[in-house]
C-alpha cells in the first residue's frame, strides 16, 4: 500500500524505451475504449442518444490501438510488453466508470474532454522520444488527432444529441434526481422535523431536564430514521415506478429523517433548560422554512403555500407537545 502511495516500484517516463512507450500507448488506448463503452452502457437506457456519442469515441480509440499495434509489430514483433498507466510514475490516471457514477450527462462529456487532452499531451512527449521516422509520424498524428478529439465529444454531441435532445436528457436527469433523492429526502426531513416535535417538547416541558430530553430526542430521531429508511427501501424496488435504486432512496429518507429530529434534539445538550429550549425552537423555525424552500425549489410548490402548510402543521404538533408536557 505504501509503495503505491509514494510511487515506489514505478518507472519514470523518461526511462521507458521506444518499445515500452508503444506498449504503454496500446494499453492506454485499450483502457480508454473500455471506459467509453462503460459510459455508453451506463447511459444507454436513460440517454440513448448520448450513448451513441461514447460508442463512437470507443470505436475511435480502437482504431488508434490498431494503428499502434501495427507499428509495434513492424518494429519490435508480436510480443507486446505488459506496461500500464499504474506502472509509470507521474503518468495520468483514469477513473473507472464506477467511480464517477452516477453518470450525469455533463459529467461524462467533461470527463471525455479531459481524457483526450491528457492523451494529446502523452503523444506529444512520446513523439519526442521516438527515433524511427514512421513511429514518430504515427505518434505525431495521434497527438494531433487527440487534440482534435477534445472537441469530438462536443461534435458527436451535435450529431447525436442536438440542443433539444440534450435539454430533454437534462430534464430526465433532473427528474430522476428528484425521484431518487429529493422526494425521499424531503419526506424524511418532514417526518423527522415534524413528527419528533411532540415527543421532544413534551419531554422537555414535562421533565425540564435537558439530558433526559436529549435522550428522548435522540432515540426518537434514530428510531424514526431507521423506520423511514427501511420503509422507503422495501416498499418499492424502483423498477416499475422508475424511482431509482431502493438503497439510495432508503438512505436519503433515513438520513434526512434522523437529521430532521436531531436538529432540535441537539440543543438539549445545553444544560440550561430555557436556553436549550429557545435554541431548539429557533432550529425548528429554520427546519420548517428549509422544507418550504425545498418544496418550492424542486417540487414547484408555491413558496407561500408550502410555508403555510409546513409552518401550520409544525405549529400544531409543537403546541400538542407543549400542552401534553405541561399536563
Task: Set down the secondary structure blueprint.
Blueprint: H1 2-5, E1 11-12, H2 18-44, H3 48-76, E2 88-89, H4 105-129, H5 133-149, H6 152-160, H7 163-195, H8 197-207, H9 210-235, H10 246-265, H11 273-298, H12 303-326
Parallel strand pairs: 1-2
State the main characteristics.
327 residues; mainly alpha; Ferritin; 2 domains; two-stranded parallel ribbon; 2 strands; disordered N terminus
Low confidence ranges: 1-7
Using the coordinates above, name the CATH class of the largest domain: Mainly Alpha
Count of structural domains = 2
What is the tally of helical segments? 12
CATH architecture of the largest domain: Up-down Bundle
Name the overall outline. Answer: elongated
Give the ordered list of helices and strands.
Answer: HEHHEHHHHHHHHH
Largest sheet: 2 strands, parallel
Number of strand segments: 2
| Residues in helices, as a percent range | over 70%
Task: Please state the structural category.
Answer: mainly alpha
Distance between the termini: 62 Å
CATH superfamily heading of the largest domain: Ferritin, core subunit, four-helix bundle
- Which value, in Å, is the CA radius of gyration? 29 Å
Mean pLDDT: 79
At CATH level 3, the topology of the largest domain is Ferritin
How much of the residues is beta strand, in percent?
Answer: under 5%
User: What topology, given as strand order, has the largest sheet?
Assistant: 1-2
Amino acid at each position: 500500500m505504501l509503495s503505491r502511495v509514494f510511487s515506489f516500484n514505478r518507472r519514470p517516463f523518461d526511462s521507458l524505451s521506444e518499445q515500452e512507450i508503444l506498449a504503454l500507448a496500446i494499453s492506454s488506448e485499450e483502457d480508454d475504449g473500455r471506459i467509453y463503452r462503460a459510459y455508453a452502457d451506463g447511459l444507454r437506457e436513460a440517454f440513448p442518444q448520448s450513448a451513441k456519442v461514447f460508442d463512437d469515441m470507443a470505436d475511435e480509440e480502437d482504431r488508434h490501438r490498431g494503428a499502434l499495434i501495427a507499428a509495434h509489430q513492424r518494429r519490435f514483433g508480436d510480443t507486446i510488453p505488459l506496461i500500464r498507466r499504474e506502472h509509470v510514475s507521474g503518468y495520468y490516471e483514469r477513473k473507472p466508470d464506477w467511480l464517477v457514477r452516477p453518470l450525469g450527462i455533463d459529467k461524462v462529456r467533461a470527463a471525455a474532454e479531459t481524457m483526450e487532452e491528457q492523451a494529446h499531451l502523452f503523444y506529444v512527449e512520446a513523439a519526442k522520444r521516438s527515433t524511427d521516422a514512421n513511429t514518430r509520424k504515427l505518434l505525431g498524428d495521434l497527438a494531433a488527432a487527440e487534440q482534435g478529439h477534445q472537441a469530438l465529444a462536443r461534435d458527436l454531441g451535435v450529431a447525436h444529441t442536438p440542443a433539444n435532445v440534450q435539454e430533454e436528457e437534462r430534464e430526465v436527469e433532473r427528474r430522476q434526481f428528484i425521484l431518487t433523492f429529493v422526494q425521499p429526502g424531503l419526506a424524511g426531513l418532514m417526518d423527522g422535523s415534524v413528527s419528533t416535535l411532540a415527543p421532544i417538547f413534551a419531554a422537555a416541558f414535562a421533565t425540564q431536564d435537558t439530558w433526559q430530553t436529549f435522550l428522548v430526542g435522540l432515540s426518537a430521531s434514530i428510531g424514526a430514521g431507521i423506520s423511514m429508511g427501511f420503509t422507503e427501501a422495501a416498499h418499492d424496488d424502483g423498477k416499475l415506478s422508475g424511482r431509482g435504486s431502493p438503497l439510495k432512496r432508503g438512505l436519503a429518507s433515513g438520513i434526512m429523517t434522523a437529521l430532521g429530529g436531531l436538529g432540535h434534539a441537539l440543543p438539549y445538550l445545553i444544560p440550561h433548560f430555557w436556553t436549550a429550549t429557545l435554541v431548539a425552537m429557533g432550529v425548528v423555525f429554520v427546519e420548517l422554512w428549509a422544507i418550504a424552500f425545498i418544496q418550492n425549489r424542486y417540487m414547484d410548490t408555491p413558496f407561500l403555500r408550502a410555508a403555510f402548510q409546513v409552518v401550520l402543521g409544525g405549529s400544531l404538533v409543537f403546541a400538542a407537545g407543549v400542552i401534553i408536557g405541561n399536563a
